[in-house]
Amino acid sequence: MSKTSSGQDDGLADIRAGVRALCAKFPGEYWRALDRERAYPSEFVAALTEAGYLAALIPEDYGGSGLPISAAAAILEEVHAAGGNGAACHAQMYIMGTILRHGSAAQKQDYLPKLASGELRLQAFGVTEPTSGTDTLSLRTTARKQGNHYIINGQKLWTSRAEHSDLMLLLARTTPREQAKKRTDGLSLFLVDMRLAQGTSMTITPVRTMMNHSTTQIFFDDLRVPAENLIGEEGQGFRYVLSGMNAERILIAAECVGDAKWFIDKATAYAKERVLFDRPIGQNQGVQFPIARAYAQMRAAELMVREAARRYEASGDVGPEANMAKLIAADASWFAADMCVQTHGGFGFAEEYDIERKFRETRLYQVAPISTNLILSYLAEHVLGLPRSY
Ligand SMILES: Cc1cc2nc3c(=O)[nH]c(=O)nc-3n(C[C@H](O)[C@H](O)[C@H](O)COP(=O)(O)OP(=O)(O)OC[C@H]3O[C@@H](n4cnc5c(N)ncnc54)[C@H](O)[C@@H]3O)c2cc1C
């Protein structure tokens, strides 16, 4: 980590150094070539898996490292600070938590050790649909019980990494909305083994996006899922998904902090070496100030991520902090991205500098996995007590 962007020591120096050493084997050229082809970084994901980093949060009893969320956040932050993109594999870190918290003893025993060893990949999370979007409770995919199976019909959109995963965690409606006792009842979570279904009762189509993200849309046509693959209780799936969202937000926020560090390092180095009018451009306050502001914002975001992780580890009661970490970190990375392009002038647009790639990649976090507006309305309603807006 460079002097310009490093935060305070968080006691995770060894993990950070290990991830940095791994990422050094996957330089800008690697990510650039994949970006051009919209190809999946299989070698990078395999290296992270082999080094045990993707199993950071899996308890030791199931073959993982049993590390706290601050360690997982440090891993993903370092991937992004090195110019890489954890979006290729970050989901397994937090989706796995749903099995851990709500799965049966048999499900944990069957799946977690195989996820830890890399024998199985759980990278796909099917929640969003074309017509429901942020309004998850309106989703239309149904799961109908028939004997020892559930029959799934419907469509998901933006199911990322589905083509590079063996399993998918799928949210579907088991009780019609009008018959559910509570607004949040009636959705259920299933662990779908995609290896058995693809091409028959499940069709996956890639969706090309502005950055390399391996996202897809999926159609389910009478997909049969064994009843034993239901996670927890039928009808409680929405609650289980919500309980995993804080971890997701903290980890994505850490990626944004990593992105911001990368942009600040790049801009600082370039501002020192680019000479115009007989002096480095970084001698001009008009160039210095946006870099300094990006640094201050990054440090504030870093503190918020660490506070969210600390509270998550202490009590798990972390909704406001996890949301604020995601909000502030996504804003910090987006500001830093824009600043970095501006500092580089025309070169900021040149593919070989990687800036335009990282710029496109970090833009996503204003929208996914939760959009900025939805975080603001959460804070307004649940922290400030303002009236519910939707
Ligand atoms: C590249 C990519 C990868 C993704 N990966 C996954 C994945 O793996 N699994 C998955 O399930 N989903 C995934 N998503 C979906 C993502 O979580 C959604 O895009 C996101 O939650 C927003 O939903 P939406 O796109 O339908 O936007 P909409 O819900 O249609 O919202 C559109 C806009 O309106 C605003 N808005 C909506 N309602 C309100 C309101 N009440 N008040 C104020 N503003 C509002 C939103 O903030 C947003 O800016 C991915 C999306 C992308 C783009």
- Unreliable parts: none
The proportion of strand residues reads: 5-15%
- Rg value: 21 Å
Q: What does the main sheet amount to? A: 4 strands, mixed
What average pLDDT do the residues reach? Answer: 96
Strand order of the biggest β-sheet? 1-4-5-8
Small ligands present: flavin-adenine dinucleotide
The computed structural class is: alpha+beta
Shape: globular
The percentage helix is 40-55%
Distance between the first and last residues' Cα: 43 Å
Can you count the helices?
Answer: 12
SSE arrangement, N to C: HHHHHHEEEEEHEEEHEEHHHH
Please state the oligomeric state of the protein chains shown. single chain
Please report the total strand number as a whole number.
10
In short:
The protein has 390 residues and is an alpha+beta fold. The protein has helices spanning 13-23, 28-37, 42-50, 69-81, 90-102, 105-117, 194-197, 237-273, 285-314, 319-344, 355-363, 372-383, and strands spanning 122-126, 142-146, 149-157, 167-173, 187-193, 202-207, 215-226, 230-231, 275-276, 279-280. The protein is built from 12 helices and 10 strands.
